[in-house]
Design a protein that fits this description.
Number of strands: 6
Family: Belongs to the RecR family.
Distance between the termini: 69 Å
Domain Toprim: 81-178
Keywords: DNA damage, DNA recombination, DNA repair, Metal-binding, Zinc, Zinc-finger
Strand order of the largest sheet: 4-3-5-6
GO molecular function, one term: zinc ion binding
Protein name: Recombination protein RecR
Length: 201
């Protein structure tokens, strides 16, 4: 079997480290790049370099941005009294794609997970407290998911807020039956959450 030339072999090895790309997919992608015009491949390389060179974390919310503060934090049309807590930047992107939330964000940098040695001290909770000390936030919205790690993180931060910022209301995204679903097809855990977070009519 013919061996790959060393430069191609190195590129395939690097590409295969990306999520969802195995060796075969990485090799196909590398071969596609070889067929691109030289300028296009050089532009791609420059764009990848710029990711590390020009992007940084927003000092207020922790989002990746090419400005500091980021565009969301300086947007005068967004509400300044609600703060949505998300674990990572991709969760913030998902909410922004919906276009229905018009408040502020704060990325806490993960979830408390003792089995993975992720402790509260490793999250951005000191920065969160600094943000709350500014005095403009009246409500925190948890958008951390429904895993055990998310529940533990919500409980920890909720107690912190109650203890140090008792005037701030705490809420979370509603959990329950997805829109358009039939009750008979919903799992027991989701049904339980739906009952626990039922709404008055």
């Amino acid at each position: 079997m013919q061996q790959l030339p060393e430069p191609l072999k190195v590129l395939v090895g690097q590409l295969s480290k990306l999520p969802g790309l195995g060796p075969k997919s990485a090799q196909r992608l590398a071969m596609t790049l070889l067929k691109w015009p030289e300028k296009q491949t050089r532009d791609l390389g420059q764009n990848i370099h710029d990711l590390r060179d020009k992007l940084h974390l927003c000092d207020r919310c922790g989002a990746l941005s090419d400005t500091d503060p980021c565009a969301i934090c300086i947007n005068e049309h967004r509400a300044t009294d609600t703060l949505c807590l998300v674990p990572e930047w991709d969760a913030m992107l998902a909410l922004e794609d919906g276009g229905f939330y018009k408040g502020q964000y704060f990325i806490i940098g993960g979830l408390i997970a003792p089995l993975e040695n992720v402790t509260p001290e490793q999250l951005e909770l000191d920065k969160l407290k600094q943000r709350l000390l500014e005095g403009t936030i009246t409500e925190i919205i948890f958008a951390l998911g429904t895993t055990i790690e998310a529940e533990n993180t919500v409980s920890y931060i909720k107690e912190l807020v109650k203890r140090e910022f008792p005037h701030i209301n705490v809420s979370r995204l509603a959990q329950g039956i997805p829109l358009g679903s039939d009750v008979k097809f919903v799992d027991k855990a989701t049904l339980r959450q739906s009952l626990n977070y039922r709404q008055k009519l």
